[in-house]
């Protein structure tokens, strides 16, 4: 994936959200029985939030960044 391709970035982020959402739902159910799963569920939720950021704003800003993540 080229770092300047915002549409591809959004597509990959959407796919990630779809994949992780199913895991998060299962982890929520499991967390009721096993509270120790809570940190893992929260980590999955944060990954979903990051992917949503890339879908909404981040992909457009990715073109302004160098491949190492720093602004040009």
Give a description of the structure.
This protein has 72 residues and is mostly helical. It has one domain (6-61). It has helices spanning 6-33, 38-62. The longest helix has 28 residues, at 6-33. The model has no long low-confidence stretch (mean pLDDT 80).
Per DSSP, the total helix count is 2
Which structural class best describes the helix and strand composition? mainly alpha
Compute the average pLDDT: 80
Give the number of domains.
Answer: 1
State the order of secondary-structure elements, H for helix, E for strand: HH
Radius of gyration: 15 Å
Outline, from the CA principal axes?
Answer: elongated
Percent range for helical residues?
A: over 70%
Strand residue content? under 5%
List the uncertain runs.
none
What is shown here, in short?
The chain is an all-alpha fold. 74% of the residues lie in helices and 0% in strands.
Topology readout:
Elements: H1 6-33, H2 38-62
Name the descriptors.
72 residues, mainly alpha, elongated
């Amino acid at each position: 994936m080229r770092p300047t391709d915002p549409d591809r970035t959004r597509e990959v982020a959407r796919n990630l959200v779809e994949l992780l959402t199913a895991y998060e739902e299962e982890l929520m159910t499991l967390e009721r029985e096993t509270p120790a799963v809570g940190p893992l569920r929260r980590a999955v939720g944060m990954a979903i939030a990051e992917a949503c950021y890339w879908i909404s704003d981040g992909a457009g800003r990715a073109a302004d960044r160098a491949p190492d993540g720093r602004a040009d």
